[in-house]
Design goal:
Aspartate Aminotransferase, domain 1, Aspartate Aminotransferase, domain 2, 15 helices, about 45% helix, homodimer, 12 strands, about 425 residues
Chain lengths: ~425, ~425
């Protein structure tokens, strides 16, 4: 999408790859220091060696410090940090640990609808039961506790709900959860003995004024020992999102709170089967959690590049919302965070009929027509789940602003033609 | 273990990581060309972007060409190549596709004993049935077709055997299968309608005179269309072994032959859940399958480094066998290939009793004592499986020759003291 990699990240990883560059004085000193520290913590000082299954220790320490800083000093234990092959790997691994049973004792996993399809795919693969709770579109996709209660109570008739997943900021819905909602969710999980999985991979991607990212970990500990000593929580982060966007490196981590020590032993065993996460991805994570500090040679450039990416994304989030709000028949909540808009679209009855004749869902029909006629590729809402009778699509805000303007206007014209054609 | 990375591999991956190095003329031109080609095949010319789930197309083409060259011109189709996160990921993914059923219809997976524990772990995780066939220790760990027949026939009473796994060169057993055995195994798989999984990650690690690596793919095609059009075969390779030893990059591939097109669709779906294999690992694989050619600036250095690693390993394989053969009570087959010796050791009855009192298997008891008293870490045979009443351990041949000599002699003295102590 044209987003340039952060120079400092790539410098450190390049040196780790080819340590001859440690002597290259065109590379800044702080990059060389970071690389040397990582290499000193690798077997044979090489990122080609296997690491511990849990990840390189000094990087887990960096992650823990990073979490402490993020959460205003609430302690984080490197032993609770597990590095992973992107967040997906960690999420699937957690589900593997939690899922069991057959028939009506099968594990129920509560997921938001709309959801990121990794969840539905992993739940299906593990033969668990998907328990949908609907986000409140009329309230900017907020999580509603009454809806959680409804979903849980209905699910208890046919499965054993044990896990509650939440995505904050939301994918594909882009909402940022308020501190109050997070507190309510934690209280609900505590009352109902649910394992909380908090997908927080978009924690750096918050754009809307008045919105702020609150980690589940922080809120949990602020609620006091009654909660922080009992609620089981997994939180996920990734190098693929934020300002770094280093998806190809497949780096990430999870922090596990209040995990039963016996379960931890099984987790380590499970992780050791796949040996270790890619070490270059671990190195990227190491840079992100131990970035240049004021006074270091790379600090200003790093901050400038980081701010540039995040400012551009914020601009595009506003632009997207603005254009969509101006199109009759389209309703789009503010893109408070993450990287997507998820507008609701009205689809005329004749288009719904036309979709049926070709065996497509109406939103898929719309998206295919859009692709065929404009070359714009968006993902139909049915891929994420949506309330019956409503139609959406997910569109990324990643294209450069000038390009995004063109895309949005082309989409606008197309939608107008489409609705006229099928009216 | 002190094995130095191959310079050319790291140069190419460093340039892919930090493309400013494309202008660095201290890096050889062929490395820059390889990196540029890989980058041109990445989204936004960045290895930070997701790739296709199946892997970067130009690297799949390189892999296919590499296989063709290896197999004397037998064609390989890039569409049959799937890049993976190390070989382990590809092996587990294949098993996921093949395993189904409940009760006595559960899928049986035939694996050699001794085996690499990835297989037993994945089979357990997927709730399949492990069907053991024993390698013939008295015949240098050869695979015996009669034993395959026995194992299959016994398994049919309680499960549905569908998969036959083979590891060549063997891990932990180090044998290199003869062409004749491979042909027999393929014929057996064809007769019994078994899906063949050929773990060939040690294909570059063949040391013994008179031994040669024959790929299952090559033998299959040489047996003619009756076999090559029907037998379903998956073959695995990795960047973690061979002369490269780049385990930390988690790169690998599988080639799938005669896969049902409908199953292929499901495979792609399954792979897309985990997005893509780490791109730096894909790049390492790209270098290995498209190495410097005669006349290119890096050719001589590359060949020299490659030969050095393989010659050292061959020397250590011989040294290991030689020292172990001189120890009464230890029997060690020749290390024909791979990276391990797997000697059988006699354990005195009193040591077996002592092991029982501490709740350990006798080989684990031996290995723990060895570790405690000498600092040498070897893996007990019970971790890999062995015929009842026999005891083994796996020891890597990776340490530098001088160090390995010291280790082997220390192990020798320890074994003598151990047997005296418990006699």
């Amino acid at each position: 999408m044209g987003q340039k990699p952060i120079t400092f990240i790539r410098q450190v990883v390049a040196i780790c790859t080819y340590p001859n560059l440690l002597c290259d004085h065109t590379v800044p000193e702080d990059a060389r220091q970071r690389a040397e520290r990582i290499l000193n913590n690798c077997g044979g000082k090489s990122i080609g060696a296997y690491t511990a299954s849990q990840g390189i220790e000094c990087i887990r320490q960096d992650v823990a410090k990073y979490i402490e800083t993020r959460d205003g000093g609430i302690p984080s234990d490197p032993n609770n940090i597990f590095l992973s092959t992107g967040a997906s790997d960690a999420i699937v691994t957690t589900l593997k640990l939690l899922v069991s049973g057959e028939g009506s004792s099968r594990t129920g996993v509560m997921i938001p609808i709309p959801q990121y399809p990794l969840y539905s795919a992993a739940i299906a693969e593990l033969n668990a039961v998907q328990v949908n709770y609907y986000l409140d579109e009329d309230n900017c996709w907020a999580l509603n506790i009454e809806e959680l209660r409804r979903a849980l109570s209905e699910a208890r008739s046919h499965c054993h709900p044990k896990v509650l997943c939440t995505i904050n900021p939301g994918n594909p819905t882009g909402q940022v959860q308020s501190r109050q909602v997070i507190e309510d969710v934690i209280r609900f999980a505590a009352e109902e003995s649910l394992f909380l999985m908090a997908d927080e991979v978009y924690q750096d991607n918050v754009y809307a004024e008045g919105c702020e990212f609150h980690s589940f970990k922080k809120v949990l500990f602020e609620m006091g020992p009654q909660y922080s000593n009992t609620v089981e929580l997994a939180s996920y982060h990734s190098v693929s999102k934020g300002y770094m966007g280093e998806c190809g490196y497949r780096g990430g981590y999870m922090e596990l709170i209040n995990l039963d020590p016996d379960v931890r032993v099984q987790l380590i065993k499970l992780l050791s089967v796949r040996l270790c996460p890619p070490v270059s991805g671990q190195a990227v994570l190491g840079v992100i959690t131990n970035p240049p500090q004021p006074g270091e040679p790379s600090y200003e450039k790093f901050i400038k590049e980081k701010k540039h990416v995040l400012n551009c994304l914020a601009e595009r989030a506003r632009l997207t919302e603005q254009v969509f709000s101006g199109i009759p028949g389209i309703h789009c909540n503010p893109v408070q965070g993450a990287m997507y808009s998820f507008p609701r679209i009205e689809i005329p009855p004749k288009a719904i009929e036309a979709a049926q004749t070709v065996g497509q869902t109406p939103d898929m029909f719309f998206c295919m027509k859009l692709l065929e006629e404009t070359g714009i590729c968006v993902v139909p809402g049915s891929g994420f789940g949506q309330r019956e009778g409503t139609y959406h699509f997910r569109m990324t805000i990643l294209p450069k602003t000038e390009k995004l303007k063109i895309l949005l206007n082309r989409l606008k014209s197309f939608y107008q033609t489409f609705t006229e054609q099928y009216s």
